[in-house]
Amino acid sequence: MDGAEQRLNETTWPHTAGHIAPDPRDTALLLIDLDALRANYRRLRDMAPGAETAAVVKADGYGLGAVPCARALAAEGARTFFVATLGEALDLRPALPEATIYVLDGLAPGAAEHFVAAQLRPVLGDLAEIEEWAGYCRATGYAGPAAIHLDTGFNRLGLDMTGVQALAARPEWLEAFDPALVMSHLACADTQGDPKTDVQATLFDEMRALLPPAPASLAASGGIQLGPRYHYDMTRAGVALYGGQALEGAPPMQPVVTLLARIATVREAGPGDTVGYGAAHTLTRPSRIAIVTAGYADGYIRLLGGSDAREGAHGFIGPHKVPVLGRVSMDLTAFDVTNVPGALARRGGWIELLGPRLTVDELAARAQTIGYEVLTSLGPRYTRHFIGG
Ligand SMILES: *Cc1c(COP(=O)(O)O)cnc(C)c1O
Fold first, then answer.
1. What 3-state class would DSSP assign to 226?
2. 277 is catalytic
3. Which domains does the chain have, with CATH numbers?
4. DSSP-based three-state secondary structure for 24
5. pLDDT band, very low/low/confident/very high, at 4 (cuts 50, 70, 90)
6. Substitution site in 41, 47, 81, 82 for ligand 1 pocket (most atoms within 8 Å of beta carbon)
7. Tens digit of pLDDT for each residue in 81-113?
8. Taking Cα atoms as reference points, which of 79, 109, 111, 91 lies closest to residue 180?
């Protein structure tokens, strides 16, 4: 339908015009601006000029698509990538045959051969993992580059001080493989001046001093923005690449995602009528209601809904702000389009649920969560369109 593209253009950035030809099978469109992703990478790299900027593309590139995002980042100069799981690393490897890929969740028992076959590096987080990796490398003669994860107060993954001392007492383990990186992770890097951050950095230095010298990495997106004290030899940029705010009060990154949901139908209802499950929202005026084909199963979080007691989130149709009406359903959400010209708010049109005017963090705040969760909840039903790159 030839009006479809025109309606899309009216609701999105001018530079996407002509790039996106919606298909009748699309229920919603997730537009991913790879130029913005690359600009964010450059900005984070320039903040830590003495360090290598690695890119974290776990959870399918924070929900946006790990392979296209990683390719764009590699084109921008990223050489080292972090994912969470072995499966994610195996999916990424064919796209980036030359890159260094670390697996943050470490080495599951018996997994060493899978790492070696795809030239992947485990982030070794406890003594048993180190012993197994060292044993495998010794038995096979594989050089075994890997990271050693130190826990400086997070109590999640990594060796604590007792573990570091025990490791230092086992030089035969450290000689059996290549400890190519020593890393730790900050618990409170989302807040400027949190005393825990310095406690962790100091402990990181004390722990590193007990181990053979190796490149070090402490900062993720928040730590990069906290300053050079935390940059070491490599930073691990994640959410900020994708436009999320990692450090409270930091200037916003460039928005990377726009989400447009298709209007399935527009209906009319009047004062006293209620909308949706629980009859939670009662209309107070003659209203036009657009029903879009995205709901909480698509990451449009249920807490974004409204009720008589609480205003919900809103979206946009062109310049028009459209509030959510009632509860968000699994696959559908209702928006109040009473004030929007009929030519824009009609079957086959689009409502922008997320985008430069309504960022992942703003939407997250509405849903009492964080931008990370909004991004990683973006579901598989969306058609992902990559722009630029
Ligand atoms: C997820 C993760 C990162 C990236 O964190 P962001 O806050 O998204 O930048 C870096 N390091 C580790 C260990 C992680 O788990």
1. helix
2. yes
3. 3-31+254-387 (2.40.37.10), 34-242 (3.20.20.10)
4. coil
5. very low
6. 82
7. 999 999 999 999 999 999 999 999 999 999 999
8. 79
